[in-house]
Amino acid sequence: MLSLKIAARFLFSSKLQTLLIMLGIGVGVSVQVFIGSLIGGLQNDLIDSTIGSQSHITIRSQMRDERLSVSPSFLSEVEDISSEIRAVSSVLEGPGTIDNDVGDSIFIRGFEFERANDIYRFDEALISGDIPEHDGVLIGKDLAEMLAVEIGEQVRIVLPQQGFDTFTFEISGIFDLGVASVNETWFVMRLETAQTLFDTNQVSAVEMQVNDVFATTEIAERLMEAYPDLRHTEWQASNQELLSGLEGQSISSLMIQVFVMISLVLGIASVLAITVLQKSRQLGILKAMGITDFKASTIFLAQGFILGVFGALIGVGLGLFLNVAFTQFAVNPDGTPVVSLQIDPAFVMLSALVAITASLLASIIPAKRSAKLSIIEVIRNG
Amino acid sequence: MAEYALKLTGIEKTYGTTIKTKVLHGIDVSFKRHSFNAIIGQSGSGKSTLMNIMGTLDLPTSGVLEILGTKTTDMNKKQLAVLRNETIGFIFQHHYLLPEFTALENILMPAKIKHGRITQADRAYALELIEFVGLTQVKDNPANQMSGGQQQRTAIARALINKPEIILADEPTGALDSESTDKVYQLLRDINTTYQTTFLVITHDRKVAEKADRIIELKDGRIELDVVTKSS
Ligand SMILES: Nc1ncnc2c1ncn2[C@@H]1O[C@H](COP(=O)(O)OP(=O)(O)O)[C@@H](O)[C@H]1O
Ligand SMILES: [Mg+2]
C-alpha cells in the first residue's frame, strides 16, 4: 500500500510525463484492440461467406449411395444431441443433366424449406420468384443465365440414373447463394418433389449447422456415439484453403500484437528508468528513513502497474472508439461497413491484461536499479 | 538497556579503490544515552563520513559500531533498514523532504514505513510534533511550498515521529539564517529535555557547540578534542 501510494504521488507529480506514457500504452492497446477486431471481423466475414450457407456436419449412410430412412422425429432427435446444433435439415439429392444440346450437369437437391432455410437461407438468397409451393424448382442465377430462362418458364431435365427419363419443371425462383458452383449447378425443389422424382421415401443425407464452426469435432463425436452406423463429414474436409487462410491471418495478427507489445515494453522501461534517476533523491531519503530495498523497488513495480492499468483503460476506450469510427466512415456505397468488426470482449480484456503485465515486466529493470541505489551517493550529492 | 546510545571501536574509513584516501583513522568513542553532543571540525575533517557510518547509511572499512548495545557488523541491509527506521532520526543540512507530499505526510512517512499504515497514535503524535515545532499553520502545504526554516522544522518533526532513541543531525542549520538557526537549536535542546532523545549534532557554530553537554572536535579524521561541558 505504501509503495502504491508513493508511486501514485510520483506519477502525479510529473503529470505531463505520466500522461504521455499512459497515452503511449493506450495507443498500443488501442491498436491491438482495433487490429484484433478487424481481423476478427475479416475472419467472420470470410467464414460466413464461405461456410455460412453450407452444411457444417453432414451425416450419411456408411454405404456409398445408400439412402437413409428418416422418421419425422429423427431430425429433432439429432437437434437434441447438442445445444450447439442450430439447424438440422434432410436432403435428397442426385445428379441430372439439362435436356439441351450441351447437356449441362445439374445437382438436384430436395429440401424441406422450413428447415433448409436455417442453413441455406433460400428465402434471403432469392433474387426473384418464390420458394416453390408445389412442383416448381429454384435455380441459381448463373444457371438461369446459361439457359436464358425466367420465372414461370419450363426446364426439361434428364435423369441418367432413372433410365434417361426426362422430366419438366417450372421455374418458381432464382437465387444467388454467393458461390459460383452452387449458382451454376443446383436444381432445388421440395423434398416431396424429389422423392417422387427419384421414386423413394428416403433421404440422402442429414445436414446441420452449429453455432461455433470450430467446435464441430466434439459434436461429430457425440453424433457418432448416438448413430454408430452412420458416417459423418465436417466442413473442414472440403475447405482446406479457408482454414489455412484463417490461420495465416491469425498469425499475422499475432505478429503485429507481439511487436506492438515489445515496443510498449521498451517505451515503458526507458521512461521508468529515467524516473529512477529523477526520483533518486527521494529514494535515498526513503531508504535513510528505513524503507527496505525491496519496498523501494516495489514503488517502481507499482508505477508500472498504475501506468499499465490506466494505459489499458485509455487503450480500450480509444480502441473501441476507433472501431466505431471505422464502421462509421469506412463504408460501402450502400452504407454498410466495409468490414463488420468483431469486438470480442474476451480479446479486449486479454489485450488490457497483456498491457498491464507488459508494464509490470518493463518496470522490473528500473525496480532493480532502485533497489541498488546507494543512500550515501544521494545524501552526499544532495 | 545499554548505557551507550552509540559505541564506536576502531572505526576506519578509506575511500577509493585505486587511489585510496583514508578519511577516518581509528575512531574510538561512545555517546551516553540522553546526552546532547556536538561534533565540530574543519570542512573535510571527516564529520559527515563519521555521522553517516554512525547512522548505518555508510559502512566503515574496519571497526565496530554498536547501536544501543547491538553490534551492526553482522546485520544485513534489511535489518539495518529496520534499525534505522525505529531507532535513528536523521536531520540533514539539506532537509530532504519528499516534495510530492505535504508537511504532515512527510512527517508521517517513517511511521508509515514502520507500521505499513498510519495508526491513530501516529497521527496524534504527528500533530503534537507539528505543534511543538510550530508548523500548525502550514501542515498541509506541499513540502516545497514552505520557507527554508519551516522545511527544516518539518524534517526535525519527521526525525522524531517514531520516537527514535538517537537523532543524528549534520549541520541542520547550515542552510538557514541566524534567526532560524537559533530557533532550530532551541528546538533540538527542548526535544532532548522533553523526549530524552540522544543527540549528535555536527555544527560549524562554536556558540551552538558550547551549549552541548559534550564537544568533540575532529581533525584530519582523528579526534582532536573531547570536552565534557556538563555531565549528564
Ligand atoms: N565518496 C568519496 N570518495 C572520495 N573521497 C571522499 C568521498 N566522500 C568524502 N570524501 C572525502 O573525505 C573527506 C571527509 O569528508 P566529509 O566527511 O564530508 O568531511 P566534513 O563533513 O567534515 O566536511 C574529505 O576529504 C572528502 O573529500
Ligand atoms: Mg560535512
Summarize this structure briefly.
With 382 residues, chain A is an alpha+beta fold. Chain A contains 15 helices and ten strands. Chain A has a six-stranded mixed beta barrel, surrounded by four helices.
Classify the secondary structure makeup of chain A into a structural class. alpha+beta
Side by side, the strands of the main sheet of chain A go 2-3-8-5-7-6
Overall residue-averaged pLDDT value of chain B: 91
- Give the largest interface pair and sizes: A-B, 26 and 31 residues
Q: Compute the CA-based radius of gyration of chain B.
A: 17 Å
What top-tier CATH class of chain B fits best? Alpha Beta
Tell me the major beta sheet of chain B.
Answer: 6 strands, mixed
Number of strands of chain B: 10
Count of helical segments of chain B? 7
| Helical coverage of chain A, percent range | 55-70%
Mean pLDDT of chain A: 88
Note the run of SSEs of chain A as H and E: HHEHEEHHEEHEEHEHEHEHHHHHH
By DSSP (H or I, 4+ residues per run), the number of helices of chain A equals 15
Describe the structure.
The complex is a heterodimer of chains A (382) and B (232). Chain A is an alpha+beta fold and 382 residues long. Chain A folds into two domains: 2-50 and 242-381, no CATH class; 63-228, no CATH class. Chain A contains 15 helices and ten strands. Chain A has helices spanning 2-13, 15-51, 72-79, 113-120, 122-125, 141-147, 180-185, 191-197, 216-226, 240-278, 280-288, 293-329, 345-362, 364-372, 375-381, and strands at 57-61, 85-98, 105-111, 126-129, 137-140, 154-159, 165-175, 186-190, 205-210, 230-234. Chain A has a six-stranded mixed β-barrel, surrounded by four helices. In chain A, a hairpin with a 6-residue loop joins strand 2 and strand 3. In chain A, helix 2 packs across helix 12 (293-329). The longest helix of chain A is centred in the C-terminal third of the chain and has 39 residues, at 240-278. The model of chain A has no long low-confidence stretch (mean pLDDT 88). Chain B is α/β, with parallel strands linked by helices and 232 residues long. Chain B has one domain (4-228): 3-Layer(aba) Sandwich (Rossmann fold), CATH 3.40.50.300. Chain B has helices at 47-54, 77-87, 103-115, 120-132, 148-160, 178-195, 206-210; strands at residues 4-15, 21-32, 36-41, 62-67, 70-71, 88-91, 166-170, 198-202, 214-219, 222-228. In chain B, the strands form two sheets. Chain B has a six-stranded mixed beta sheet. In chain B, a hairpin with a 2-residue loop joins strand 4 and strand 5 (70-71). In chain B, helix 3 (103-115) runs parallel beside helix 5 (148-160). The radius of gyration of chain B is 17 Å and the shape is globular. Chain B starts with a strand and ends with a strand. The interface between A and B is medium-sized, with 26 and 31 residues. Bound molecules: adenosine-5'-diphosphate (ADP) and magnesium ion (MG). Adenosine-5'-diphosphate binds at residues 15-16, 21, 23, 41, 43-49 of chain B.
